[in-house]
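Try this one yourself first.
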């Protein structure tokens, strides 16, 4: 495991994960919600110094260039990440956002990587600090095509200095297969459940 995810959870008869909440906000163009969620995550992380890095998701459309540069904690403890599909939709802006985050001292992550034909190119072009593998890719790692994709992303990470993180690791067999493919950082229910505040 590497770092901590600042996750959103909403309960209304069932538990909604952060990705579902952000997707709903994206569909309804609620970019103010994304900004608010980012501020809440930064505030929560600031209360726990030295326990980073903290991974905070964002919608690229909500980032205002050049005003974006949160303060209040050590930048090296924060990694901002966006879904690979969102970043691929506007490569030039995504590079601007990556450069802005790095100039502010933050880490940069490409999340949900490996499920699209363009994934490898997007990761190569953006050269993130972290590559987070898509959960569906991880959970079906025993399929040869998925294993080959993970192997290629690990190779890219090795060449560019990016750490590859597997999300959604719930079974020991999945962990073992990922380890054999070169993935050294993993998160999922196999290692524990999400906990409020850390």
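Now uncover the answer:
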């Amino acid at each position: 495991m590497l770092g901590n995810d600042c996750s959103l959870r909403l309960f209304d008869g069932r538990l909604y994960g952060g990705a579902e909440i952000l997707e709903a906000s994206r569909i309804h163009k609620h970019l103010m919600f994304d900004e608010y969620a980012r501020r809440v995550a930064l505030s929560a992380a600031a209360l726990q110094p030295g326990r980073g890095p903290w991974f905070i998701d964002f919608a690229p459309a909500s980032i205002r260039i050049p005003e974006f540069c949160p303060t209040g904690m050590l930048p090296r403890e924060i990694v901002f990440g966006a879904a690979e599909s969102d970043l691929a939709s506007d490569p030039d802006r995504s590079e601007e956002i990556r450069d802005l985050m790095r100039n502010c001292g933050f880490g940069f992550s490409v999340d949900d990587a490996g499920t699209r034909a363009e994934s490898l190119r997007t990761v190569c072009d953006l050269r993130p600090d972290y590559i987070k593998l898509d959960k569906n890719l991880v959970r079906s790692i025993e399929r040869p095509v998925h294993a080959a994709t993970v192997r290629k992303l690990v190779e890219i990470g090795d060449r560019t200095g990016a750490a590859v993180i597997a999300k959604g690791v719930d079974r020991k067999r999945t962990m073992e297969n990922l380890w054999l493919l070169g993935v050294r950082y993993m998160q999922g229910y196999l290692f524990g459940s999400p906990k409020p505040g850390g």
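Discussion: Residues 58-186 form a domain with the TIM Barrel fold (CATH 3.20.20.450). The longest strand covers residues 107-113.
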